Amino acid sequence: MDALQLLVSGLANGCIYGLIALGFVLIYKATEAVNFAQGDMMMLGAFITLGLNNEAWLGLPFWLAVPLAIAVMAAIGYLLDALVLRRMFGQSQIAVVILTIALGFIARFIAGAIWGHEPQSLESPIAGMEVRVGGIVLGLDEVAVIVVTVVLTGVLYLFFSRTRLGLAMQATSQNQLAAYYMGIPVKRVHSLTWALAGAMAAIAGILFATKGAIDPNSGLLGIKAFAAAVIGGFGSLPGALLGGLIVGLVEPFSARYIAAGFSQIMPYLILLLILVFRPDGILAQVRQKKV
Amino acid sequence: MSDVPLLEVRNLETYYGPIMALRGVSLAVHHGQIVAVLGANGAGKTTLMRTISGVLEPEKGQVVLEGEEVTAREPDEIVRRKVVHVPEGREIFPLMSVRENLLMGAFTRSDRDGIAADMDMVCGYFPALAERLDQEAGTLSGGQQQMLAIGRGLMARPRLMLLDEPSLGLSPILVKEIFAILRRLNAEQAVTMLIVEQNARTALDVADYGYVLELGRIVMDGPAERLRASKDIQEFYLGMKDESPRGRRRWKARKTWR
Predict the structure, then answer these.
(1) How large is the ipTM?
(2) DSSP per-residue string spanning A60-88
């Protein structure tokens, strides 16, 4: 019984890591840049929802605040690429990495300036509710996180395999030059990928905020999600989710069965082992270009 | 053949960083023609193609499509004007299926029926692709990947195809096969073609008109028959030995254009 509750809360945490990791991988695959601000974009998405929804701020209905926040984050992602990152085109990877780290600091500062540095809770309609399955009590918020992630995974799969834009994003990430030759507007596709990553960050942020309090430093969770992406195989979308789930599950179980402090160490221990024994991650895409 | 050429390139100069890859290239492709640009490694053939398709920006000069200047436009605008670049080295999308690769060729179109009809048309020309529509493109053989690259280009319904070394790395039989298909496409689908090739013999066999590109300059041009008959082309591009009355090679191995 105890183990089952650990399993559910671990899965719920893992889903959030996985969603942030998806954002990392989406942008990396499309533009070959790593966006270290992905965790902070999650935090920003959570605060925007909180700002729209909570009585103390705008007090909009929850179901209106959620799509609005997702749309705002998508717009922010699009504009970040179109106005800032596109100018870095052709610069070294390091420059882009530093830039995204700086963007993360800016996001933290802005969130702190607007919403303050004290932890706050999102007034969501499902906060504190419970579901009983058999003799087990599960938080509705945790179940909701898992359900939303499963649905979102399905939607993303259909988007990438069925829609014109999804296929164009795949094509651009696999062979940018050929994508240009096909008449795919590569720069716009890059910006749209950032928009998608922004929307994903917002969803992850909303789910995170339904589970507990948020503050401007919540975005540091992104580091753990980055580890999850590397564990799963950087460059693989299913890998990102898998890595997230592994990290999410390892935390509560190691705290329960080894010692409390181990929940902080274990994800990075796994990361270390993966890097030594399977450097491309668990679900690495083996890609060789024939010449 | 109308008076205004389908494609006209005027005095194009393109740099790769500090290296001047094109040093003032001018050429014209008329409707319905197959035009070949011959040249060795590093002559600037690929640079020329990339400059026309908008991937590279020229320093000077103009690219003109049917009298309209399109120099340095975004590549997708060039494709929307029905000019498609079929790149060398079979630049395909390796992790996508053959069908998805072909659909990407039709990215700039939105007429579903037309796209479906053209998919059938491509499968008709390339039966090897028709059998492998759901296979991952990266697992195709070299020849099949080249066919896929050409088929993918056709999916845009091009007026003009820019073919960059379609013979690269293929066996002589496959080269013959692919050039036979190119000739058919030119006749049956009214696709005008600009082919750059190292394989001068094959290219001059299908072409109506030819240019010779050396170190970024056009050094010679003329109808294909005349180029085939030219002593210099024979010696330096077709590898024929010129038997002089004294029974030996020309003692001065110099090209007349130098």
Answers:
(1) 0.87
(2) --HHHHHHHHHHHHHHHHHHIIIIIGGGG
